[in-house]
Specification:
Oligomer: single chain
Structural class: alpha/beta
Distance between the termini: 85 Å
Radius of gyration: 21 Å
Number of helices: 11
CATH topology of the largest domain: Rossmann fold
Mean pLDDT: 94
Strand content: 15-25%
């Protein structure tokens, strides 16, 4: 008796990819944190299925061409240990979708939580008019800030010309060219355009150089310039602390992401008043510092 061939559906391909990802011991942390979600991300992308699709769509029979498209992505994820965001060129931050590739860090900072809350209760000054996004990468933080504050102008800096090209693409997607200005600069714009910043946002490189060899292969697809920093991860953070106050309005705040390096920040700068945020959605290392606290630190 001839056996019937198995009908392949989105659901069966997700389960198959999940099993293979688990067997391969892949590392997650670039938008997902487990094999099932990673499989869903890749399969849905290949089949152009929205994440809020009807459940019955997952059980529709697929064509050989559709299955081949999924298989190409799954094989690439397994063979190259490349994060799914780079394979699909898609990632979300603060509720907005962005184009990404290996020229930029994959957006994942928990700073998004504060953006969506409009920095309450830490900012209580006048209406925010000027914002600086340091180390913009894909532009995700600066763009999300511009969308959260439609009356504000945003300066966004990056030392990488390649990263700025990606940011420009995302700025154009959201038609923000009139309010969001990209600067090729090392942390701060070379020429400050028009007065002090109410809000400075920074997600600088903070992974100590010594940890490079121990990182999973997925992280090594990201640009080293955006990940690693000298002085045990503190080199860029120190320079931001020293230079920010002079560029901030009196009621301004600096909001920065130090990731897992935050205990080293606390130990290295004991006199600096940093508010470490308790994040509702998980994660740690997000600090808030007022202009007055940074001004006192800069004088030391």
């Amino acid at each position: 008796m001839k056996r019937r061939s198995k009908v392949l559906t989105a659901r069966t391909l997700v389960l198959d990819a999940e099993r293979r990802f688990k067997r391969a011991g892949l590392h997650y942390g670039h938008g997902t944190d487990n094999a099932r979600d990673e499989a869903v991300f890749l399969v849905f992308h290949a089949l152009e299925i929205p994440f809020d699709c009807r459940p019955d769509r997952l059980d529709q029979a697929l064509t050989p061409a559709q299955c081949a498209g999924v298989e190409d992505l799954v094989k690439a994820r397994l063979a190259r240990r490349c994060p799914a965001a780079y394979l699909t060129h898609r990632m979300w931050f603060a509720g907005h979708e962005f184009y990404v590739d290996e020229r930029v860090l994959i957006p994942r900072s928990p700073l998004a939580e504060l953006l969506q809350a409009r920095f309450a209760p830490w900012y209580y000054g006048p209406a925010i008019q000027r914002i600086l996004d340091i180390g913009t990468g894909s532009g995700c933080i600066g763009i999300a800030a511009a969308l959260a504050y439609p009356e504000a102008n945003v300066d966004a800096t990056d030392i990488s010309v390649a990263a700025l090209a990606v940011a420009a693409r995302n700025v154009a997607t959201y038609a923000l060219e009139s309010r969001l200005h990209l600067h090729h600069a090392d942390l701060f714009p070379i020429v400050d355009s028009a007065g002090a910043y109410d809000l400075i946002l920074a997600n600088p490189p903070y992974v100590p150089d010594a940890e490079r060899a121990a990182l999973p292969a997925e992280y090594l697809h990201e640009p080293a310039l955006a990940l690693f920093a000298a002085e045990e991860g503190l080199a860029l953070i120190r320079r931001i602390f020293k230079g920010a106050a002079a560029r901030m309005a009196p009621a301004g705040i600096l909001v920065f992401d130090a990731g897992g390096t935050w205990p080293a920040v606390e130990a290295a700068f004991p006199s600096l008043e940093v508010i470490w945020v308790d994040l509702v959605n998980g994660g740690d290392g997000i600090g808030v510092i007022t202009q007055s606290a940074l001004a006192q630190f800069a004088l030391q």
